[in-house]
Amino acid sequence: MAVYTSSAELGRVMTVNDFFVRPDHRRRGIGRELAKHLIEECERMKIDEIGLEVLHGNKTAARFWESVGLRQADRFLFRKKLGR
Fold first, then answer.
1. Has residue 75 been placed in a domain?
2. Residue-wise DSSP of 20-78
3. Residue numbers of the domain that contains 14
């Protein structure tokens, strides 16, 4: 799932909120094809930047995204959970 937003600083941004391949379908190139299609579609839409979050401990995901051309951003992630 990806969401388009407009940013005064970054321009047209596509933020990937969920990117998942079922475990029994991994290591078959499916994720790479999905990422390739995502990037091509963003280029077609004239998106300026694709953004996504990878947890610090998820080295496999970080290597995957680097392998398809994304680079680590120079930003901090801040969060505040609100009570329930």
1. no
2. ---GGGTTSSHHHHHHHHHHHHHHHTT-SEEEE---TT-HHHHHHHHHTT----S----
3. 2-67
The domain tally of the chain equals: 1
Show the tokens assigned to 45: 């839409």
- Residue 80, Cα to own-chain centre: how many angstroms? 21
Place of tokens 């280029």: 43
End-to-end CA distance of the chain: 26
* Residue 77 forms part of a structural domain: no
Angle in degrees, 0-180, between the axes of helices 30-44 and 59-67, rounded to the nearest 10? 50
pLDDT digits (tens, 9 = 90+) for 30-82: 999 999 999 999 999 999 999 999 999 999 999 999 999 999 998 888 989 99
- Render 57-71 in DSSP notation, one character per residue: T-HHHHHHHHHTT--
Q: Which two tokens stand for residue 55?
A: 């947890």
